Amino acid sequence: MSEGLYRWIPLVEHRGRSGGTLIMLQPGPRTDAIPFQIRKVLYITDLQPGHVRGGHAHLGTEEVLVCLRGACTVELDNGRGQTAVVRLDRRDRGLYLPPRVWRVVHDFEPATDLLALASMEYDESDYIRSREAFETMAATAHEPCRPVLVERRV
User: Looking at 56, 58, 106, 142, which residue is catalytic?
Assistant: First the structure.
């Protein structure tokens, strides 16, 4: 893992006595919880090979991405040379992304469904959509990205 770009959050699956599987997403201090109050939920469905999502960073929003069905690749970087490529292919773990991390999501398997949980409601001024503006911001940032926990295997 590239320190500070992401971390995995294990999402515990519960098998129902009457069938099915339950995966609970809730905020809190536990290692299997979302590390922020959820203010926005995005459900992106019917993603296909060739589609590309993301291509932006957030100034203050934290996010957790969960691939509910299918798989996709997430490319991450902080604009200062720190990069990571992560494959989302399991519904039982979430990919935590802190603010100020550029993300591009691509390489979707057919019919992929992606869930995004965000710490802030939609606010266009929180988005950094220009790669050039992002790199300028990263180069002139005075404070390092907020530290996150080191990845644990689940």
Answer: 56
What are the residues facing 76 on neighbouring strands?
84, 103
Instruction: Name residue, tokens 């040379």.
Output: 81
pLDDT tens digits for 58-70?
999 999 999 999 9
Note the pTM of the prediction, 2 decimals: 0.86
- Going by C-alpha positions, the residue among 72, 82, 79 that lies closest to residue 52 is 72
CATH among 3.40.50.2300, 3.40.50.720, 3.10.20.90, 2.60.120.10 for 7-140: 2.60.120.10
For the chain, the structural domain boundaries read 7-140
Could you confirm whether 56 is annotated as catalytic? yes
Six token digits for residue 61: 């929003």
CA distance 113 to 117: 13
